Amino acid sequence: MQSTQLKINFQRLKADILALAEIGKSSDDRGIYRMAFTDADMQARAWLESRIVDGGLEYASDGAANQFGKLGASDDRPSILMGSHIDSVPAAGHLDGTLGVLTALECLRTMREAGSRTKYGLEMIAFSDEEGRFGGLLGSESLAGEITPERIHNAVDLSGVTLIDAMKAHGLNAMDALQARRSPESIRSYLELHIEQGPVLDRLGHQVGVVEHITGLFKWSIRLIGNANHAGTTPMNMRRDAFHGLAEFSGEIPRILEEHGGDNSVATIGRVDLFPGTANTVPGRVEFSLDCRDTSEEVLEALGGAFRRALSAIARRRDLMFEFDVLSQVRSVACDEMIVQTVADAAEALGLRSHRMPSGAVHDAQIMARVAPMGMIFVPSKDGRSHNPAEWTHWEDIEAGANLALQTLLKLSEAE
Amino acid sequence: MQSTQLKINFQRLKADILALAEIGKSSDDRGIYRMAFTDADMQARAWLESRIVDGGLEYASDGAANQFGKLGASDDRPSILMGSHIDSVPAAGHLDGTLGVLTALECLRTMREAGSRTKYGLEMIAFSDEEGRFGGLLGSESLAGEITPERIHNAVDLSGVTLIDAMKAHGLNAMDALQARRSPESIRSYLELHIEQGPVLDRLGHQVGVVEHITGLFKWSIRLIGNANHAGTTPMNMRRDAFHGLAEFSGEIPRILEEHGGDNSVATIGRVDLFPGTANTVPGRVEFSLDCRDTSEEVLEALGGAFRRALSAIARRRDLMFEFDVLSQVRSVACDEMIVQTVADAAEALGLRSHRMPSGAVHDAQIMARVAPMGMIFVPSKDGRSHNPAEWTHWEDIEAGANLALQTLLKLSEAE
Question: What pLDDT, in 10s, does the model give residues A347-386?
Fold first, then answer.
């Protein structure tokens, strides 16, 4: 019964969140700029190291510059890992991965202070470059042993700076990431707390989300090709208007999701380019993106088939040409059932309003699932805002989420 | 009966078309570059002057650098004007306005050689900058007295060259365009032959088009504003996707044209910009153009109202904001009924397959209608191609159109 009474020190967690939010903050309220291996990121790493040490945890880092704070971890027994990342997108808010790292830190500090005796070691972790200055998920992929020399050599940011040079500037050797692999036997399980980055918990009034799956996705670039004609001289019935084909397809997406999708299927047309793209010319060609996500590989396959059939039929009917390229394809990942149940039971014991849900966004947890049983906890994002200075989670929800993480860690580590 | 037997000299017309096609021709088959007041345009003007003089016509030019070839024109009696322009868009074909100018030249040469005695004078004309290097329709607007000092001062091409400097480089004073006005009393009527720039005649197998109206148009820039969200984390029923609003509107255009439009109504969405415009974000905002044309002002007004109602309803239903700006609005112009009938009768007498139709494109004729009864003759554009090196009209159709123009001129000038 001791475990359900143990609580994190919320004021300390809040102070940490506010302190880290100052590092990389723009002077004119445009948000936080703490992209991987920038000066701000390095300053945040130094700050985190000192907080880990001050919290009485054992500090460590690996070849991928992932940072660890360990409690009772040893080579003799596997560890429970909990963490996320402290790097940010440009113009970010103060939460995102940061909340997961600082919550993990707070949980381990609390357990250390309470003298919790656990069957498994505990390690908090801050992964390098989750957000993608150099491609993203660098730290977790290195730890999972999925990094390659080619990937490291070719990694370059939007300004043309290479990963190798960016790390070298701070005395780090990017090639050391190849040594960051941890054996699966050394990891008992992985837990990550993250803001939802979507509107569901906020809209439904839930305090925490128990993640069951991280969705898979496919992203296509689609072209419909007709004929560019003069908008004044070409009668409607003599046109091969590529945009009309796209508009019809867009209108069919709800039907296709209803007929072939699951409860959490989503599909988005986010990018559209018309050619020639002038007001007085019938568009002869349109290129657009289709991003489709679901937690089930079978559902994704069925949706992909239905989209192709719809596009082919529209193209035939409208005398257009239809082509598409697969831009990316990511398999869905299931959270470990035992961890999901542990989180859900702990939420109930704490009297929290919880909601079982998928994650539609990419997380380090997706990579970690390849080497260890994985679970995730969500806290609400006000209005679903994310990657945005206006990102917000109520402090009470942060406190609830952190205590849920603590109870889950106690259970997973089989604390006495 | 003499008049229906008189024919233009087709080989001479063809030779002129081929000769002028060499002036401004790119060395690598990218088409003709004869934009107004470029060296190529000036070279073409010099060539045209010599052809006018060689043809036994009286050469003249006015303050707007419009070029004339006169036959029996005098201050005592009004003239029938026939012409078009020899300037081109970049990467143009060999016909467009050129065909109308050279056909007018050929008709007058033929009438001079035949010794036709006419009640009215005849003038062929090549208008300056129809295509718009400096805004377009410069010559016809000057002749119609609709040019202003401001317009001349502000006219500038895409490279930043002013009209004033471009004309000065060739010894011309742009301000002289203010003196180019012709009194309406001096113009009995205006006739223009042009390629259709659309697919109708080619598709229907007609040799010539008898233009009844030049369509009016409105061009709007429309914004639908919703909410930009993460494409992975935002369930379909929590989205305010601006593109879905546009797609639904696009799907309603055929219904709106059927319910509120006429036989020749057209509407085009030619430009679409999504914001933020990335594959993994639900589009929070879309800006797009709507170009709508018809020959009737009442129909255009009804269509504008129906489009606004549809957009408002879609915006309400989808919780989007709807705004629009009017980018341009051009009134439709009717061809003179007597001239239309004259052309149609002449086509019948020549045994040509003719088709009454609107012009959906802008022409100098539109401006000339403000000062004189106006008529237009179309010849087919292969596949509707226009403003394109692949622009093509069969030589037999050019011959048929030129002979129709000749018979029309003979009738309009009341040749004995």
Answer: 999 999 999 999 999 899 999 999 999 999 999 999 999 9
Q: The whole model's pTM is what? A: 0.88
CA distances from B315 to A146, B243, B321 (A): 47, 11, 6
SS3 B40: helix
Helical (H) or strand (E) element with B349: helix B337-349
Rounded Cα–Cα distance for residues B400 and B405 (Å): 9
> Which residues in chain B touch residue A386, judged by CB atoms under 8 angstroms apart?
230, 233
pLDDT, tens digit, 9 for 90 and up, residues A106-119: 999 999 999 999 99
Of A238, A246, A359, the CB nearest to B199: A238
* Residue B221 bridge partners (DSSP): B289, B325
For residue range B27-47, what is the model confidence (pLDDT) as tens digits?
A: 888 899 999 999 999 999 999
If phi > 0 it is left, if psi is from -120 to 50 it is alpha, else beta; for residue B289 that is beta
Percent of chain A with pLDDT over 90: 92
Mutate to test the interface with A, among B280, B387, B391 (most CBs of A within 10 A): B280
Instruction: Decide if B361 and A281 are in contact by the 8 Å CB cutoff.
Output: no
The tokens 């992209």 sit on which residue? A35
C-beta atoms of B291 and A264 within 8 A: no
**Chain B CB contacts of A283 below 8 Å:** 269-270
**What amino acid occupies position B295?**
T
What residue type is assigned to position A148 of the chain?
T
Give alpha helix (H) positions in A148-271: 149-154, 163-168, 200-204, 242-260
Instruction: From chain A, pick out residues whose CB is under 8 angstroms from the CB of B219.
Output: 279-280
List residues bridging with B194 in a β-sheet.
Answer: B378
- Nearest 5°: the CA angle B234, B239, B243 is 120
In sign, the C-alpha dihedral spanning B399, B404, B405, B409 is: positive
Cα B137 to Cα B366: distance, rounded to the nearest angstrom? 9
Q: Where are the beta strands (DSSP E) in A128-215?
A: 187-195, 208-214
CB contact under 8 A, B283 and A270: yes
- Distance of CA A254 to CAs A206, A267, A298, Å? 27, 9, 18
pLDDT of res. B2: 47
Q: Which two tokens stand for residue A84?
A: 């996320």
Given pLDDT bands bounded at 50, 70 and 90, which one contains residue B5?
Answer: confident
| CA B53 from centroid of its chain's CA atoms | 28
Q: Got the DSSP string for B104-161? A: HHHHHHHHHHHT---SSEEEEEEES--S-TTSS-HHHHHHTT---HHHHHH-B-TTS-
CA separation for the pair B302, B261 (Å, rounded): 8
| Measured CA distances, A259 to A222, A263, A385, A406, B248 (Å) | 22, 11, 30, 41, 20
| A115 burial level (CB within 10 Å; 0-12, 13-18, 19+) | exposed
Q: Which domains does chain A have, with CATH numbers?
A: 3-215+334-414 (3.40.630.10), 223-330 (3.30.70.360)
Residue found under tokens 């205590």:
A403
pLDDT tens by residue, A136-179: 999 999 999 999 999 999 999 988 999 999 999 999 999 999 99
CA–CA dist B157, B155 (Å, integer): 7
Select from B198, B254, B282 the Cβ nearest to the Cβ of A230. Answer: B198
Q: Which of A152, A202, A242 is nearest to A384 (CA)?
A: A202
Residue type, B188: R
pLDDT in tens, B339-358: 999 999 999 999 999 999 99
Q: Is the pLDDT of residue B318 over 90?
A: yes
Residue B176 makes CB contacts below 8 A (sequence gap 6+) with B62, B63, B64
